[in-house]
Amino acid sequence: MTDLSPDGQPQLSKHRIEALVDGIFAVAMTLLVIELRLPEHAHLATEAALREALVELLPKLISWLVSFFVLAIFWIANHRLYSYVRHADPRLLWLTILSLSGASLLPFASAVNGQFVSTTGQMVYSGVMIWLSVSTLLMARHIHRHPALCAHPMGLGAYRATMVRSCGVMSIAALALLAGYVAPGKANVMFVLMFALRPLGARVERRHAQAAALSRA
């Protein structure tokens, strides 16, 4: 029998949700590499032909590299959010499923973006990035606003750090889309900026903690 919270909402096991998250992210990260294959009917008898085939794979390789680490970053974000959670309610469950739907779609978006060097391909890719960011932000807001779900409440500093990271990814995705109009095929380089979001979020959280400490002094 499912336990109920004081407001009558069912308390769902976070461990089964985390197992689903881990499985879908693992499958999505594995599927990314399927697009990295040499032409089946190409004649690769010489070193020059092999090098030419590998050069032709370069856009797909870049798309795979970016997508793999993007999925890793969002998996870490999900892991960080669920570290606060003791049990889930139906709304958090569905917000998590919304995030997983974006993760499962990323291999398709990566394939489109790698195969078709175009503004439309970049639009599909950036759209999935925004989808993942919005769903992560909604999860963080729900966890922050419902401390009864948490083993330890998500503080305002941690919530604001998540906002900075999520909004940062959305901004980078929009920037990549704009760059796609100028230099199609090279816009994915913009997503390297995502690696600056973690220290930026940590700085926001640290400054909030310092301000809170000063206000209590």
Automatic annotation (TrEMBL):
It is a multi-pass membrane protein. It catalyses: K(+)(in) = K(+)(out). Signal peptide: none annotated. One of its GO terms (cellular component) is membrane. It is found in: Membrane. Keywords: Ion channel, Ion transport, Membrane, Potassium, Potassium channel, Potassium transport, Transmembrane, Transmembrane helix, Transport. One of its GO terms (molecular function) is proton channel activity. Its main location: membrane. Pfam families: TMEM175. The chain crosses the membrane at residues 20-38, 58-77, 92-112, 124-143, 163-183. Belongs to the TMEM175 family. This is DUF1211 domain-containing protein. It comes from Duganella vulcania.
